Amino acid sequence: MEKVLHSNIRTAARLLLEKHIKSTDLLKTSFIKAKNLKKYNAFITLTENEGTSQAENSLQRFQLDKPKSELDGIPIAIKDNFCTNNIKTTCASKMLENFVPAYNATVYERLQDSGACLVGKTNLDQFAMGAGTVDSIYGPTKNIWGYKEGSEEFYISGGSSGGSAIAVSSGACFGAIGSDTGGSTRNPASYCGLVGLKPTYGLVSRHGLIPLVNSMDVPGILTRTVDDCVSILNAVAGFDEKDSTSLTKPYNKIRLPPFNKLGVQGLRVGIPIEYHSEFLRDEVYDTWNEIANILEKYGAKIKQVSLRHTEFSIVCYSILNQCEVASNMARYDGIEFGLRADNHSSTEKLFATSRSLGFNEVVRNRILTGNYFLLTRNYEKYFNQALKVRRLISNDFDNVWEDVQVLLTPTTLSTAPLYKEFIQKTNRDQCALQDYCTQPANMAGIPAVSIPIKLSKNGLPLSLQVMGKNLSEPMILALAKFIEGIVEFKHFT
Amino acid sequence: MIQLTNMIPFNNFKSIKRCYSTAKSKKWKSVVGLEVHAQIFTESKLFSGSSTKFTSPVNSNVSLFDCSTPGTLPVLNKSCVEAGVLTALALNCNINPVSTFDRKHYFYADMPSGYQITQQRSPLALNGKLAFQVYTPGYHKTPYKTEVKIKQVQLEQDSGKSLHDDDRSLVDLNRAGIPLMELVFEPDLKDGEEAAALIKELTSILQRINTCSCKMEEGALRVDANVSIHQEGEPYGTRTEIKNIGSVRGVAGAVKYEIERQIKVKESGGTITNETRAWDAASKITVAMRDKEELQDYRYMPEPNLPPLHVAVGPFTRGCVNVEELKNKIPELPEETRVRLKNEMGLSSEQAIVLVNDTALLNIFETALEKRKISPKLLANFLINEFNTMLNKLDKEAKDIDTSPKFYGDIVELLENNKINRNTAKYLLGKIIENTKETPLEILQKEDLLQISNEEELKEICAKVIEENEKLVKQYKAGKTKVFKAIMGCVSAKTKGKADMGKCEKLLKDMLN
């Protein structure tokens, strides 16, 4: 059964359909696996009650030969910043440590409707503010790659959706939902050797996702294979009336042909020079080159392009992020939900104490800076200026689509860093470095997918990113699948 | 609450006038601007599906969004946009084809998200104007017309309510997220009566287009007034803001008090500080609100969860509501009604104003006139004088009475056709207000109240009165003509007020001379 867990959704679905295995057994194995792999700290909450009852229902459907979809009976995990009815949703924060929502995020609702079974809620940086899954009140999530039993040292999983990434790469589930604001899904995908999709902004509903930056947040998908990613995307994408920014255009389910029917003949692939950062590690650079050459060999037209404003993306993002954070965090005052401090001397005191107890320093810093940028006297200089720069970055992409159909870039500048090295830099500096290649896609709202290519010399995954214009998921996923077929990345077993 | 439209007993006239003349110092000019928060009359809230019912138990109209549960998102209620556009059109505003929402940040226990969603940068509508009549019976000799410009109309959320006890504070979120229209008027008014008249006009308009209940007692319409004074030819003075005035008379009173207060401060050498004041309706004064913390910076930011609001202006279909379609939905507005009442029905300006100011009274008037030929002027007179006086005595308003409007028409018809006299008319009026079932005619028949107008019968009665009141007749004949009234009184008493007194007067005079 454990082998099934390490296979892909299509294989598992066939085994379930042909009654070789039972949904309940599959999920049970997931829980055993998750518990055995506790040392990686992927999960905040294991949802045995919910998951088991979902698996029992699934089993009944299979007995009647009426599965809901190809996801029926498939164990999945969800990042702990998506609200789940009656299940604690903590955002890895003191503030929401005991928060139990009374509703389901649309993403989870749709997964449930397609028959998927919830294994648990996964670890993240507090309120998704981070790029390492190190700033969690539950401790860091450790990377499964390069992990040495008994050693103090470990590599980070990347973040902020590190818990979701490790849940999938460890084989505790087939897929997991993350969120992606500046790279939070693609970054851990890159470090953990997974496929990580950031869909077009508005394609997947944000209803129930506890926001970081509303104008950039998207639910992301982490899987081991591109096909698995497509299966999950097909279940969660499409208009949701509860999210006014979700796209009204009807979603057509994506069907990718098998690898041997895929080709890249004539595909115009752009290589943006600005992504060749001074901090880009040689191994990543070489991998990038290697894949570009392979694609060219298969008939793709590789073209060097320029996205001139890339270097401003990070500082621009930092301002917009902190402003929206300052605003979004204003609701955590200890009145309606969340942590309430035991200081009732005045309403203001209650607010202040609850907030300083409930938020870590990273969150508090962002709130402070964000509020500074939003002051009337600073608004034009910072926030509005950042909006203008964002427009320029977005225009860069619009212009580049006149030349090429997709962009091929690194996802991260290096392989997963060691924890002890990672924490030498501040959260802010790390985000600036970690999000360098991923963050522009969030500025422009375009879809991007990270694909594992191979292992580095020291045995850590190296990954690349494919970006395309809005709603080009079918194309970038097809290219991802093509690359996947060529490189045959060996997943962790 | 006594409405302006109600008749003020005559002996009050003088005292009001006296206040007015002392308040109005010749050298000072006062400038008044209003900001009105009107709750939109809808079933559900601005961004959630919760009910807006005023009488619901505490914290029962609260959706997950209303208590700002993390992860919930606003979804704009289309009917609020319609109401906003309709209102803006009725106020002759330019509708913005694209408007946007902003977050206005401040911490308060009854503002669960820590910000209010409003329209600061690009509101729903701009640059309107409204002409209206200013006329407070007893205050102004004659009505006059004035105009106010509307700076903008914006949609925003209402806050919840905080209730403070001695040792604790409680929060009720039923009101949180109720749709509001904020109407910002330019400072084009000169005193409290103009401000009150504007609010009355606005109330009639909003009630007619059904976008706000305007129940000020429920807080459905709340008024902030900006007041400043200056001397002719000089720039405007520092203004103060009076927050949350809860009645039409409150608006008049608060503004008047504030103008007088500012004049007093200035004339005693003081300076006016820019401050927020509250109207104490009981003691009829404005008081500075608890030391306002240093100027709040609301840190406005575009609301990222709501796309720009598109309103179709002109022959387009893009947008969630269409201006042209809504234009056709606008019924006759108060000013149009006043013109119609004057031009088509021959009412005086004063009558037209009083009727239009009281929606319920106007409804009685118009329904009573349907399908019958009575003098509109007589009916208006009867309603404005007799009916309103009676309501005043009962401490009620026209809207509190559910008698069929036709009954008033019946009475005036009987009066006009000489079937009853004025006394009986008043008597019947009192009856139908109390008992809403019986028609005036039924009451007449039951109580035998029809006017006696048969001349023979009247002659007989008059003869009898002369016979029974020898003394009076003697005095009259001796030249004391004053007693004629007393003799008439006897006739009235004998017929229990039913005699056609006009005829009787003539008959008596003939018989006595």
Number of strands of chain A: 11
Query: Largest sheet of chain A, described in full?
Result: 11 strands, mixed
Count of distinct structural domains of chain B: 3
Number of strands of chain B: 17
Rg over CA atoms of chain B: 29 Å
CATH architecture heading of chain A: Alpha-Beta Complex
Q: Order of strands across the widest beta sheet of chain B?
A: 2-6-7-10-1-11-12-13-14
State the name of the first-level CATH class of chain A: Alpha Beta
Main interface: chain pair and counts: A-B, 45 and 32 residues
CATH superfamily of chain A, by name, is Amidase signature (AS) domain
Read across the widest sheet of chain A, the strand sequence of neighbours is: 1-3-2-4-6-5-10-11-9-7-8
Calculate the terminal CA-CA distance of chain A, rounded to whole Å: 13 Å
Question: What structural class should be given to the helix and strand makeup of chain A?
Answer: alpha/beta
| Distance separating the two termini of chain B | 54 Å
Which outline of chain B best applies? elongated
The computed structural class of chain B is alpha+beta
**How many domain regions of chain A?**
1
Supply the number of helical segments of chain B. Answer: 16
What is the overall number of helices of chain A?
Answer: 17
Shape of chain A: globular
Query: Average pLDDT across residues of chain B?
Result: 87
Looking at this protein, list some descriptive labels.
heterodimer; A: 493 residues; alpha/beta; Amidase signature (AS) enzymes; 17 helices; B: 513 residues; Arc Repressor Mutant, subunit A; 3 domains; 9-stranded mixed β-sheet; 16 helices; 38% helix; 19% strand; Asn/Gln_tRNA_amidoTrase-B-like (chain B); ATP-binding (chain B); ligase (chain B)
